[in-house]
């Protein structure tokens, strides 16, 4: 039995870091919704019926630097707007994974989008407090600390059936410091429910974070020319943004002028399947042999988890359809395909087909949704158009 309240819960929070909202900004934002809590650096929208009236990414681009979205059926999204001039997009793209992690260049910004639909969620999660706790991760990214991205990649592979890896999927570069996470990274692990055993196994290939002593820092600063020092101080006094980011990168250049030479041969990048199988082996009793393949065992576990939250997934499907948006229809159909697998696993295909028939009747006027049901071969024969 699900512990979720039956009513919907949508939580949107936006945070401004690089600059506070102007009076004009706040006036525009306040017109978006009456479900709003607004300060010069934060906007929170909470809905128990309906949803955000605009495009959250566009609001992020125009006014803010970070966004968090959370629902009571397990959908979670964390987005950062990063200045394009201080981001290596090619590096970020090494960590992307379809449906879960994306990064895109929009105007003078890069948008990092981390998403999951956490069907294993077992209770109500309040959105308040999560974004401020994870906000330091944006600064870490600008300082070229990519542990957040690797953790997001772990989150993504643990939610993917092994059979979905059509080609060998190798891990992205393993950043240093995975064995000593910051408080904000621990909050990220908790928020996205990253498997601790998977994290432990993955972190075995992570070197320690380099330590920069005060003496090393002082020696690095002494190598700056007088003109360079004056330039940094002048722009800092003028209130120009990102001066700390520039200074940090300049110090790193002095401390490690040839980082590629110091790294030596690149480490072997492990396959996602190998990491997941290592987790399964750690969790299974060693004395009892299992005749099932690792792939089938992983899929069976995933289906059992989905079946425990079947009623909540149907609620989520209805909520997505009610949005009357193409992307929402696509997400609803993906969940329905998972529910179809659950029905096949449980032998409840007839009940599933009845639910589909009811959906088809209830939303008979939504041609876009009906088209996607047909394309996914989800309609029972008696209602096939």
Task: Describe this entry's structure for a reader.
Residues 279-298 are annotated as: Disordered. It contains 18 helices and 7 strands. The protein is of the alpha+beta class. It has 3 domains: 10-210, no CATH class; 214-255, no CATH class; 299-376, no CATH class. It has a 7-stranded antiparallel sheet. The two termini are 35 Å apart.
- The portion of residues assigned to helices is 40-55%
* Distance between the first and last residues' Cα: 35 Å
- Radius of gyration, CA atoms, in whole angstroms: 24 Å
Main-sheet strand order equals 2-3-1-4-5-7-6
The helix/strand series, from N terminus to C terminus, equals EHEEHEEHEEHHHHHHHHHHHHHHH
Q: What number of domains?
A: 3
Number of separate helices: 18
Uncertain segments: 1-6
Strand content: 5-15%
Summarize the structure.
The protein has 385 residues and is of the alpha+beta class. It has helices spanning 23-30, 56-63, 89-93, 130-134, 136-142, 147-158, 183-191, 196-203, 214-222, 226-237, 243-255, 259-263, 272-283, 294-308, 310-322, 326-346, 349-362, 367-375, and strands spanning 10-15, 36-39, 42-47, 66-71, 75-83, 101-106, 109-117. A 7-stranded antiparallel sheet has the order 2-3-1-4-5-7-6.
